[in-house]
Amino acid sequence: MPRPFPALPNAPAAARNPTVTTVHGVDLHDDYGWLRADNWQEAMRAPNRLPADIADYLTAENAYYDAAMADTADLQARLVAEMRGRIKEDDSSVPRENGPYAYGLRYDDGAEYPVFIRTPRHGGAAETMLDVNVMAATQDYFQLGTTQVSPDHATLAWAADVNGSEFHRLTFRDLTTGKDFNYHIPDVASVAWADGQTLFYVRVDARHHPNRVYRHTLGTDPATDTLVYTEDDTRYHVNVSRLRSGAYIALSTGMNDENEISIIPTADPTATPQVIEPRTTGLEYDIEHQGDAFLILTNADGAHDFKVVTAPVATPARDNWRDLIPHEDGRMIIGLAAHKGWTIWTERRNALPHICYVRAGAPIEAARSISFDEQAYSLGSDPSPEYDTDSFRFTYASPTTPPQVFDYDLSAGTRTLRKTVEIPSGHDPANYVTIRTTAPSHDGAQVPVTILYHKDTPLDGTAPCLLYGYGSYGATMPASFSANRLSLVNRGSVYAIAHVRGGEELGRNWYEAAKFAGKLNTFHDFIAAAQKLIADGYTDRGRIVIQGGSAGGLLVGAVLNMAPDLWAGAIADVPFVDVLTTILDDTLPLTPGEWSQWGNPIESRQAFDDIRSYSPYDNVTAQAYPPILVTAGVSDPRVTYWEPAKWVARLRATKTDDNILLLRTNMTSGHFGKSGRFAALEDAARSYAFALKITGTDLSAG
């Protein structure tokens, strides 16, 4: 049975500063709202500006974490060494041909960050475009954002975030001299080149809302840039991109379940953006350009699992949309790519992806698909950046198979393996078993569950299990490969992913069934997955550690309240747990766009009651909880640090057990933790050491 992990004496106790807010006639009591700094926007950019009382509390929690986990220091070091041993230190990507060059990146031995390189297409010496290690050398945190080469291959636009706040600074590099231009553009969210001298970019405002599109001429003062578009609706976020044909810039503005796209011809970058189809409640679409038509992936006309239509370039409005790939229930089209002579799309059936393709102009009945044999796997579609080509690239992986890169000849229908990710310390897929099963939920829905275990692990209920879930925004959890997970699986743990409602594994309805009042389905599905694992002998009650991050942290928090005695423990990474308070606050950068997901509790009493019924912070009760590890980041713009901090404070003051409760806040980074391919292993090692400790796992293997 699991070993206890009792709380240490003198756990931090956050000060109570009771406040009452009345919404829809309901009094909301909050003792810990003071943890939200009045200058949170300033602190996001400069974490050292956090008020002293808040910083002192978070620091005290970090010290408590360090003391509680001190006896795992050697284990964490071994875990980091194991995980690093599975990373090829001197590695490189498969080059991508684009114009006169083949582009790629490499990792030098021991380097945290990549070096972006290119080689003349027909032979010659490689040249370094950007060595990220040099850029990151003086920073505690460094995350590269966009890297976009101009169409004439003369200039690199690159952006970086140096504190985890996701405010990226855009820089231009002359690829002939290797020198950066002597100016920058701050707070850039996305970039698209029109030609060798003209670039469109989106800037975010002080609330981290990407809402303004500018046109920039290379070498000119950004203060003189032309404002092309401003989005006034705070629910909508703006993005710019260049279509693969190179003929158009797409200006997209949208929220979770609704959007609008305008186009600007690259031949005339000063042209007024032309709207494809005005925003309409519930209408989603994305576009590709092919010849004299746009190909449009859309849910129009009740196509809840999406279809592909065509529209003339001259008259692309919805009245002129004609079906190319009709809608089919249960077959969700999740991606579309157009080459000059080919239409390629990715679809998902029964929680598994497939790649399909057809010649441009051919009847859809002539379409072909690429098949795979394993029970559970993941696919990555990676179309060529070139428009006129018969070559298509995809990546394949499964929980047992490391990622493989294939080039596919669309004319011949043949695939060529270009790379299999090497595991230097060794990996034999035959030593592992991947199973796809289904778990009956509370209402009869069959929830897919992906299971990975070592072939020697006994399936008699004695194995510990780490069960992972997400379940929001239609995000699908792929059955992919993770070298890090082997450190658990090799020690006899079962690793499982619950593909709960809220994702789109089984189509759009799988997602829609967990919105608004249906959100409880996500949590019931996760509990059902755990019960299925127990019933089938993979693990047992009280031996399951649960993990989820961001909205997956909401899932963790909710099921901890609903079924605390089912779990051995929980890991909640940057968890979205103060849901009601956040969705009531329309001054936060993401909130207005979230109302289509959760409901608008400001205007709707029903939405208020729905969210209040499951919001983890609002449903903490005087009951026993298992050991819990919570993480946060001071500069996180997605889940602000005070959500996990408030949750931990309320849990510690309310729960009736003496199990450990830990909050570890990264004081210098944001939502995604440490940057760098090796530094990030420390975060994984901390989580795994916690899981191994609370399940009493044999720590010597790996």
UniProtKB/TrEMBL annotation:
<dbReference type="InterPro" id="IPR023302">
    <property type="entry name" value="Pept_S9A_N"/>
</dbReference>
<keyword id="KW-0645">Protease</keyword>
<feature type="domain" description="Peptidase S9A N-terminal">
    <location>
        <begin position="12"/>
        <end position="419"/>
    </location>
</feature>
<dbReference type="InterPro" id="IPR029058">
    <property type="entry name" value="AB_hydrolase_fold"/>
</dbReference>
<protein>
    <submittedName>
        <fullName>S9 family peptidase</fullName>
    </submittedName>
</protein>
<keyword id="KW-0378">Hydrolase</keyword>
<dbReference type="InterPro" id="IPR002470">
    <property type="entry name" value="Peptidase_S9A"/>
</dbReference>
<comment type="similarity">
    <text>Belongs to the peptidase S9A family.</text>
</comment>
<dbReference type="InterPro" id="IPR051543">
    <property type="entry name" value="Serine_Peptidase_S9A"/>
</dbReference>
<dbReference type="Pfam" id="PF00326">
    <property type="entry name" value="Peptidase_S9"/>
</dbReference>
<keyword id="KW-0720">Serine protease</keyword>
<dbReference type="InterPro" id="IPR002471">
    <property type="entry name" value="Pept_S9_AS"/>
</dbReference>
<dbReference type="Pfam" id="PF02897">
    <property type="entry name" value="Peptidase_S9_N"/>
</dbReference>
<feature type="domain" description="Peptidase S9 prolyl oligopeptidase catalytic">
    <location>
        <begin position="480"/>
        <end position="696"/>
    </location>
</feature>
<dbReference type="InterPro" id="IPR001375">
    <property type="entry name" value="Peptidase_S9_cat"/>
</dbReference>
